[in-house]
């Protein structure tokens, strides 16, 4: 039964990463646009050329200063960056016992997010934004919380059963 669950989680992780890649790397591109981009037969340079390397600059702008940008767009951008990585923080510790600590899940999520941001920077699929890295990592941390709480509950229940067994 464990192998079926592991295979299911691996399939879910692969599907999740494909969907995440589409939303992060190719959010404004159709399949023909993606092909044209890789064959260098299109000029996308005017689409994205701003990057943010200053922590909290975009977050601060969206929360306090961006009165010229629709509130829904600002909320979608900030929450979308968090929500998009919650499944990763949830799935990865269920797949491998190496990711059962908050620190390791945080680091893995940060590395995944950094990979996406660097791909955007190098290949010009979007804009590198260190604030996306921060928000994405926060999302992975939030996704880990239910796994940790359930694990603590199970350990507590098992501890109670063990102590009840000794008291009989």
Question: How would you explain this protein's 3D organization?
Answer:
- It contains 7 helices and no strands.
- The protein is mainly α and 168 residues long.
- It is globular and about 65 Å long.
- The mean pLDDT is 89.
Descriptors:
168 residues; mainly alpha; globular
Q: Taking all residues together, what is the mean pLDDT?
A: 89
Major sheet: none
Quaternary state of this entry equals: single chain
* Cα-atom radius of gyration: 20 Å
- Number of helical stretches of at least 4 residues: 7
Report the count of strand segments.
Answer: 0
SSE run? HHHHHHH
Could you estimate the helical fraction of the residues in percent? over 70%
Task: Give the end-to-end Cα distance, rounded to a whole number of Å.
Answer: 32 Å
Helix/sheet category? mainly alpha
- The low-pLDDT segments are none
Shape: globular
% residues in beta strands: under 5%
Topology of this structure?
Layout: H1 2-25, H2 31-38, H3 57-65, H4 71-83, H5 86-95, H6 102-123, H7 130-167
């Amino acid at each position: 039964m464990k192998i079926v669950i592991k295979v299911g989680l691996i399939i879910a992780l692969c599907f999740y990463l494909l969907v995440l890649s589409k939303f992060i790397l190719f959010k404004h591109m159709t399949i023909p646009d993606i092909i044209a981009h890789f064959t260098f037969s299109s000029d996308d340079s005017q689409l994205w050329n701003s990057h943010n390397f200053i922590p909290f600059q975009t977050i601060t702008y969206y929360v306090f200063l961006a009165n010229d940008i629709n509130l829904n767009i600002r909320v979608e951008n900030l929450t979308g960056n968090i929500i998009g990585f919650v499944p990763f923080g949830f799935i990865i510790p269920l797949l491998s016992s190496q990711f059962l600590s908050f620190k390791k899940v945080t680091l893995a999520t940060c590395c995944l997010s950094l990979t996406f941001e660097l791909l955007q920077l190098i290949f010009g699929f979007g804009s590198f934004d260190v604030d996306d890295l921060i928000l994405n990592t926060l999302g992975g941390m939030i996704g880990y919380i239910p796994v940790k709480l359930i694990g603590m509950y199970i350990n507590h229940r098992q501890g109670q059963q063990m102590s009840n067994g000794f008291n009989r």
